Fold these 3 entries.
Entry 1:
Amino acid sequence: MTMVQIGENGWFYTPDTRHPIPDTQHLTSTMLTVIRKRLLLAIPTLIGVTFITFFAGFLAPGSPIDAKLKERNDPAARARLMHEYGLDRPPLVQYVSFLLNAARGDWENPFLMIHLSHRL
């Protein structure tokens, strides 16, 4: 009869072969812990990537309103569009609004996203 010993790393060893037999309960709990940590690390990573991408759009020349108006230089239309798209608010307020809308799955204003992606 072969006896089984538990090693310090949680693996079972048979004394005659010393080939590890995995402890499935230990491996399952370890894997769930790793998955949980990775998912929790994804949150600040996504916030960091969106922060850098969002504010990189402000470094590009021009604005989405200039692209929408093209050759027309109407200050009233420009002010109306700036307010309509929320570009008259401070950049940090725009970013928080963007994050909240993205968390809800609300992508109602694709014009800005398409234009910002073309600017980058």
Entry 2:
Amino acid sequence: MHSPWDKVRTLRQAWLKLMVVLPHERGKGIMKLTNHTALIEAGIETRFGPEWPGRRCGAKTRSGGACQNPAIKGRDRCKLHGGLSTGPRTPEGKARAAAAHTKHGRRSAAHVEKVKFINGELRRITYELKRDGLIP
């Protein structure tokens, strides 16, 4: 009698046999290269394999080749290379994006001005204390 986990175990073993692990990545459990035809023969479908007929992104990668991710519907690039977002188009949207661009407020003009004022006051106080001989 077979348990439901037998099929899972069999598929996992097939998957591990089909994966090629680079020697320096072996201890990390990161699997880099996949044999797609062997996966398909084992019954594990690959969604965007080498024979996929759809449009590819085609953006130039750091290795010099073309990106093989599928292009977003109605766009020329994948979600990683700018196909997902078009950015603001209306003047109101552009103004909203410019106003919301600060991530944390530590570099806003008001904050920079306040920091400059505080540092100036500290320099002035330190100078006066040194002049009066209260600190070396």
Entry 3:
Amino acid sequence: MPAGKHAIGCKWVFKIKHDSEGKVDRYKSRLVAKGYAQMYGQDYDATFAPVAKQNTFRTLLTVATAKNMKVRHYDVKTAFLNGDIVEDLYMTQPEGYVAEGEEHLVCKLRGSLYGLKQSARAWNTKMNQILLENGFVRSKADQCLYSKFENNKWMYVLLYVDDLIVAHEDDETIMQFGRVINEHFTVNDLGDISYYLGIQIERESDGSFLLNQSAKITNILNQFGMKDSKGASTPMDTAYPKLEGEYDCLPNNDQYRQAVGALLYVATTTRPDIAAAVGILCRRVSNPRQRDWHALKRIMKYLKQTVDLKLKICANSNLELVGYADADWAGDVNDRKSTSGYFYKPVHKQLLYMKIIRDASSLPLLRTLMAEPNTSTLDIITCEIL
């Protein structure tokens, strides 16, 4: 190993992969670099890599519904191993593969490896380069959305790490795209989209999509011991926001934070009916009380009773967006902060569901509008649509 260089450690990681119903699909083993030992400025520089927004995913499904597009799912095998690295990196020999009599030697990395600080960025850069070379244009609103207009038809590609969602009116064109990508990487064709980031997806005969996370919700209930609890008809007791006092604080907030994080993902993905309740309980993450924990468990009870609810994504041929926004005025009785909300829909059909924003006037972009929550909300809705 050259003087002044150091070797990064590595380890084997074993994982059980599950299918859309939560059943064991396969067992995986992966060699992972101990990236925490890398030195900034010497072993890596920039590390940021974008991922697709949930709003973009739902919008893509809406466009596919309106234009009667096919939506196909591809998965790139060992995606991070395809990235190129420019740094001079060395790694210790993997456990079980140490050369006898040459234990002092190290491995020089010729490409990216899982666990490296820059591996996600290297992969995203490589994939971006290939898509641009094939005539795609990167969206300014979401860097993981690509579009291409050819033969009077649009093709859309949504990239989320190693998942590719491809939409086009012609199935053969999508298959041709898959063959092009397969020339660069090993790609699994998963067929018509049915499972994506823990979301179960069904397509109805009229072209609309149904999204649900029943498997994810079941896992949450099991994780927090709510599997055998009774159900609840509403996500939050109307008396909860009026409760005051700090006399029943929890000794630590670890479990509370885990539960809020799990529910927040469900709320922002397929279950807007719990978004307001989860948003209120997010305010207590730093110092939760016993009553806050009980309120969280009520949301879980509500999810248990409504686990089979599905979010329907549909649209007609007219994709003109209509947006609505509103805000109260110092509605919080404790600190007099305002709560703003907005949602979009195409004409006659819902597209993006309501999003609750706590104290919207505190966002840097809107500080000049601090005295007018409604104006702040309109600013946010304009930024979102642009």
